[in-house]
Structures are given as C-alpha cells and as structure tokens.
Design goal:
356 residues, disordered N terminus, 6 strands, alpha+beta, 6-stranded antiparallel beta sheet, 17% strand, 8 helices
Length: 356
C-alpha cells in the first residue's frame, strides 16, 4: 500500500534507523511505573490497571522499533504542525511529537502542493494507555478545463491495546470519499470532492460535494483517549469557557496536524480562520471545515450562521452552473489591487479563490 516518491521526501520506508531507548528498568517494574520509565513524564496519567499500562508500554516500544517517532526522526511538515498544537496547549516541545509515528506515507507533489497523498499516522496518548490512528487519502490535479479533487480524513480510536504494534486496520477506500472512513471502526473527520457527473470541458464548474463527519461526541472521545476526560466549565465563567473551547479545538486540530495539515481555527470573533498551506480542504471560498470544527467543539462565532448560509448558496449556484457574485471575495480582490496585487499568504491558498 505504502511507498515513497523519493528518498528525500520519505525516507521512512527506505532506511533502517537505530532506536535509542532508555536502559531497562529494575526487575519487577510494570504498569504505570514502566510507562513513566520509558516515556515519562506522562501528562497527569489517568487511572488504569497495571496490565493496561504494561500493554501500552510494550506496544509503543514495538512501534518505535519499527517506525520510530517524528521527534527522533523528523518529518518537518508534520513536526511543525504538531509543534504548533503543543504550543497552543502549553506543552513542552516534543510532548506529542514523541508519541507520533508514521506508519505509511505516499505523497506525490505538483510543485509545492500534493497531487496525491495516502498517509497513515499513529498518535500514542501521553496521558492514557490508548492510541489513535489518523488517515488521509487525497487527490488534487488541475487539467485543461477541470480540477480533479477529492479527499477524506478520518481517525480510529484504540481504547484497548493488544496485538502486533506494527499492525493496523487499513481503511477501505472503495466507493465515494464519504464512505472511506465510515467502516471498520473508522470515523470520518471531513471529506469533499468535485462532482464531475455531466460536468466537464470548457463549461466545467466547481460543483463541491462535502461534509463534516466530526461531531461533538467524537471530539470528546478523542480528548478522553489522548488527554483524559475534560470537565465542562460553568456557563457564567467566560475565561474558563474560552480555555475549554481552545483545548477542544486544539484536540481536533491535532488530528489534522498529525498528517501535516495546519488549519488554524478561530475561537473568538477577533480571531480569523486560516487555510492550511499546500492542502486544499474546501473547494470554494467558504471555510466550512473551520466552522465544522467549532460546531463539533460545541460553540459558534457570531458570523458562523451567515457564513454557513452564504456557503450553501455558493454551492447551489455552482451546482447549477450559474455565476456567483461573492462580495467578500470582490472586496479582497480590491484590497489586493490597492496593495499592488501581492499577498504574502497567496502561496498557501491553493485554488480557494473564485474562478474568473
């Protein structure tokens, strides 16, 4: 399934790496003490049986022998995105990176943007005897008149650790993207594609079909698996509510960051959503992924309802082939012209802008 476009891009499947591990603990050390010895300091580890912590330790050690982790064997694009999450959560550098291993990675590039990608990573919790696998399958290629584009991002939580640490449940990518992470224990985060049915040639249009699969219960499950349970703060404590939202948003963003996607999501009206560089997750100008992450984390911003309405209208107009006049985009174009047409963020926007 997995391969490499070049040794420089993905050396993981090409070279053997010496794993530097701590010396064995004294005889008889098991359970949480064993996990702390090899991977500590853990983050306020949750209560679990000695057998669960021992199984976690041996499983994670086995995965490190096969794949190592991204902190000891750096993959810059993923290290940078995960390091940003560590900073948002006020964690020491490497706290999350040391628990993330790349199980498989195939990326073919078109300039600075991925044309095809099939990436599977594993996140071992720094606080519980559990782990999560995250997978993305992605395709984006510009043709003469059309753009081929489809992807799905999903995750699978392992609450009970057992079996071969090098084994994984390969998600089925049969059928449309909406099905790729809906079977075998996998849960969808988001998916999208351009519908090409009766839509091709010079009159091709960006007929986006897309949806969020991540929901509030799912975010809480991910947080519990990676960091332990989280308590809902009192509704009249604004500071505690904002901190709660930021923790949940960072947890959801970690699933993106683990495969190298750096989507910045606003938590207040004063902040703005920032598209990821290189990866195209939305086929039009509506940032429905960021809005969907907020909804899955149990809150909305004041402009989200209107943005959702405009996004649906935009999808509908493109679906029937009519031109869509996005005033916000026109305003942005006017600003670019006033600034001489240059924008330092242009390299990261892919083809989010509207077609001429």
């Amino acid at each position: 399934m997995w391969g490499s476009d070049s040794e420089e891009e993905n050396p993981y499947a090409v070279k053997e790496v010496e794993v530097k591990e701590k010396d064995p603990p004294p005889s008889g050390v098991t359970g949480l003490a064993l996990a702390e010895h090899y991977f500590g300091p853990l983050l306020s580890p949750v209560a679990a049986t000695p057998a669960q912590w021992t199984a976690y330790t041996e499983h994670r050690r086995g995965a490190n022998v096969k794949y190592n982790n991204i902190f000891d064997r750096r993959k810059q694009s993923i290290n940078d995105t995960v390091a940003a999450i560590e900073k948002d959560l006020s964690l020491d550098n490497g706290t999350l990176q040391k628990g993330i291993s790349i199980l498989g990675r195939l990326v073919e590039w078109d300039g600075n943007e991925p044309r095809d990608a099939d990436v599977l990573v594993r996140i071992y919790s720094p606080a519980t005897p559990k782990y999560i696998d995250v997978h993305i399958k992605y395709h984006c290629r510009a043709r003469m008149h059309e753009i081929e584009w489809c992807y799905s991002l999903g995750y699978r939580i392992y609450n009970r650790i057992s079996g071969d640490p090098t084994a994984y449940h390969d998600p089925s990518t049969n059928g449309p993207p909406s099905m790729w992470h809906s079977r075998g224990g996998w849960q969808p985060i988001c998916w999208a594609y351009y519908d090409d049915e009766d839509n091709y040639g010079p009159k091709w249009r960006r007929n986006e079909v897309a949806d969020m699969g991540l929901h509030e219960e799912g975010v809480l499950d991910v947080h519990e698996a990676l960091f332990g349970p989280i308590e809902t703060p009192p509704s009249d404590d604004a500071d505690a509510l904002l901190a709660y939202r930021r923790k949940l948003v960072a947890t959801a963003r970690l699933l993106f960051a683990a495969v190298g996607i750096d989507y910045e999501v606003a938590c207040t009206d004063e902040e703005t959503d920032q598209w990821p560089r290189r990866w195209t997750l939305e086929g039009l100008s509506d940032k429905w992924v960021a809005r969907g992450i907020r909804e899955a984390c149990g809150f909305h911003l004041s402009g989200d309802a209107e943005a959702a309405k405009r996004g649906k209208e935009q999808q509908r107009y493109y679906a029937v082939g009519e031109n869509y006049d996005d005033e916000d985009d026109e305003d942005e174009d006017d600003e670019d012209e006033e600034d001489g047409g240059d924008n330092e963020d242009d390299d990261g926007e892919g083809f989010y802008g509207e077609p001429n």
